[in-house]
Write a structure and sequence with these properties.
- It contains 7 helices and 12 strands.
- The chain has about 240 residues and is of the alpha/beta class.
- The chain has 2 domains: about 80 residues, Nucleotidyltransferase, domain 5 (2-Layer Sandwich), CATH 3.30.420.40; about 150 residues, 2-Layer Sandwich (Nucleotidyltransferase, domain 5).
- The longest helix is centred in the last third of the chain and has 28 residues.
- The radius of gyration is 19 Å and the shape is globular.
Length: about 240
């Protein structure tokens, strides 16, 4: 029997089919694509459970539920952020308000690495969460990701236009490069400063863990060491499969 894991982010929907602890198939699509197309390569036979981590609104949950019923799948298990699990204590005043993607990333990172952690998820938004070695989540930060910042800049300016390739240089020689490189430098500085500040605050080392669709590209621009774990949300979701009511 197989377990279907679904990660619905702000931009994309990704899925994995797990059998005997191994990924046997997977897929990805943009959030506006029909579910039938996104799951076109999925064999719906012999699926014992379906776990969903979603930051979308109720309309998506309803659409997913209808799709599952139509294809004869088990009742969907929508994962939410608890007060504590797997040795991690949620630092939010209202634990359920913490984005489930951030929660899953934290529990997976804490499971993989010891010590104090700075968990960074690079997607539509860039999020940072600080997790102590004992599992206490101190809280975090949320800022717009690269593409969201570009969209905001284009929307609120008249003469900035983005097009063409970025080019491998450290300073922009045209508007496109100046915008892309400027935003990248902002995000690199933000992440670097967060690690530096928390190492000072905690009087000890903080391990930087990067995940998400934009993690690899941003990590290449960092001057500090980091652990690149591009699928922490899936790793955390897989951990939750035996612990969701």
């Amino acid at each position: 029997m197989s377990v279907l894991l679904i990660d619905r982010g702000n931009t994309r929907l990704k899925w994995r089919l797990i059998q005997s602890g191994q990924v046997v198939s997977s897929g990805v699509g943009l959030k506006h694509e029909p579910l039938l197309a996104i799951f076109s390569d999925l064999d719906v036979n012999a699926i014992a459970d379906v776990y969903v981590a979603s930051v979308a609104d109720q309309s998506f949950d309803d659409e997913m539920t209808e799709w599952a019923v139509t294809h004869g799948l088990p009742k969907l298990r929508f994962v939410s952020s608890p007060k504590a699990a797997f040795g991690v204590v949620n630092g939010y005043e209202e634990p359920s308000q913490l984005g489930v993607d951030r929660w899953l990333g934290m529990v997976a990172a804490h499971d993989k690495l010891s010590g104090n952690l700075c968990v960074v998820d690079v997607g539509t938004a860039l999020t940072i969460d600080i997790v102590l070695g004992n599992g206490d989540h101190l809280g975090g930060y949320i800022v717009p990701g690269s593409e969201l910042q570009i969209q905001t800049l284009l929307k609120n300016t008249d003469k900035i236009h983005i097009g063409g390739e970025n080019g491998a240089m450290s300073v922009g020689k045209n508007t496109h490069q100046a915008v892309k490189l400027g935003i990248k430098r902002m995000l690199v500085s933000f992440v670097t400063q967060a690690v530096t500040d928390w190492e000072r605050e905690l009087s000890g080392p903080v391990k930087l863990v990067m995940t998400g669709g934009g993690a690899k590209e941003l990590a290449l621009s960092l001057a500090i060491p980091c652990f690149l774990e591009e699928n922490l949300v899936f790793d955390g979701l897989n951990m939750m499969t035996g612990n969701v009511e």
